[in-house]
Amino acid sequence: MQVKRALLKLSGEALAGPAGSGLDGETLTRIASDVAEASRQGFQIAIVVGGGNFFRGVQGLTRGLSRNTGDSIGMLGTVMNALALEHAIESAGVQARAMSAIAMPALCESYARRRAIDHLRNGKVVVLGGGTGNPWFTTDTGAALRAAELECDVLLKGTNVDGVYDSDPRKNPGARRFDRLTHDEAISRDLKVMDTAAFALARDSGLSIVVFSLHAPGAICRALRGEGPQTLVTPA
Ligand SMILES: Nc1ncnc2c1ncn2[C@@H]1O[C@H](COP(=O)(O)OP(=O)(O)O)[C@@H](O)[C@H]1O
Ligand SMILES: O=c1ccn([C@@H]2O[C@H](COP(=O)(O)OP(=O)(O)O)[C@@H](O)[C@H]2O)c(=O)[nH]1
Fold first, then answer.
1. Ligand 1: does its nearest atom lie under 6 Å from the Cβ of 159?
2. What's the pLDDT score for residue 73?
3. DSSP string spanning 95-147?
4. Rounded mean pLDDT of 65-77?
5. Closest by alpha carbon to 124, among 141, 143, 145, 109?
6. Which of 168, 172, 183, 231 to mutate to test the pocket of ligand 1 (most atoms within 8 A of CB)?
7. What is the Å distance from ligand 2's center to 41 Cα?
8. Which parts of the sequence bind UMP (predicted)?
9. How far is Cα 100 from Cα 82, in angstroms, rounded to an integer?
10. Mean pLDDT for the chain?
11. Which of 11, 74, 75, 224 is exposed most, by the fewest CB atoms within 10 A?
């Protein structure tokens, strides 16, 4: 696969480091320098960042909040991560623009498809916060949506496991990793590394997904080159 423009999905937890919540400076710096290196190598990178290190909408239910309010808080968490990443990537020497799906003009640009494409063409890394801008969605679905809108060649899902397994590897130590599978197989076998809506949207827009682990330094550059342990999920 020849990749020029990639959509990188980073879960919020990926920025949390060993503490498991909030932002870890060292982790942020490591991931940002990997992204900056990929940009210097000529890849156009758009990032959709999650917010699970701060708040997930469903957590609100146990606090007496409605799902709609919980999801609004969750989306705000993703914007916090986008601002942190924008700063960390610029500190690593590459220009970056945070864009939010929910207008917050005092903090960052609002997401507009054509403006995001302009930034990418001009060599800036675009960091997309706010998910889809709607409750009841996830940032995985946001990542598939933005990858389709921005005509990305691939969706790279960077996470804490090194691919898609036949069952959750965190729960089943005997789980086996796929090198390759289709979106339909991932959906029908209920392989929960991404939600069904994200797999379905990626399938319908003809977008391949690479699932890889973010843990080692240089992981993002290697994933872009198709190197290292990973699972390739293809529409057919
Ligand atoms: N079949 C599977 N293959 C790989 N990972 C899976 C699978 N089922 C569930 N997972 C879990 O999906 C998680 C990766 O998704 P991610 O979006 O980064 O995490 P979260 O959903 O907790 O934010 C991993 O922590 C892994 O334990
Ligand atoms: O389009 C979206 C994307 C995210 N969220 C909310 O933001 C939270 C954080 O996103 P996500 O759980 O996808 O983050 P990740 O698991 O990747 O860290 C979610 O739980 C939702 O509450 C939402 O409402 N709409």
1. yes
2. 98
3. -EEEEESS--TTTSEEP-HHHHHHHHHTTPEEEEESTTSSTT--HHHHHHHHH
4. 97
5. 109
6. 168
7. 30
8. 51, 71, 132-139
9. 8
10. 96
11. 11
Q: How far is CA 133 from CA 54, 67, 79, 92, 139, in A?
A: 17, 14, 11, 28, 10
Phi, psi of 125 (to 5 degrees): -85, 130
The reported pLDDT for the residue numbered 192 is 87
Handedness of CA 20, 100, 43, 154 (dihedral sign): positive
For 45, the enclosing helix (H) or strand (E) is strand 44-49
Report whether residue 16 contacts ligand 1, using a CB cutoff of 6 Å: no
Work out the number of other CB atoms within 10 angstroms of the CB of residue 179.
10
Q: Residue 111 annotated as binding?
A: no
ipTM of the complex: 0.92
Distances (CA, A) of 220 to 22, 62, 73, 227: 22, 36, 29, 10
Pair 53, 109: CB distance under 8 Å: no
| Cβ atoms 164, 211 nearer than 8 A | yes
Q: How confident is the model at residue 19 (pLDDT cuts 50, 70, 90)?
A: confident
Neighbouring CB atoms inside 10 A of 229's CB total: 16
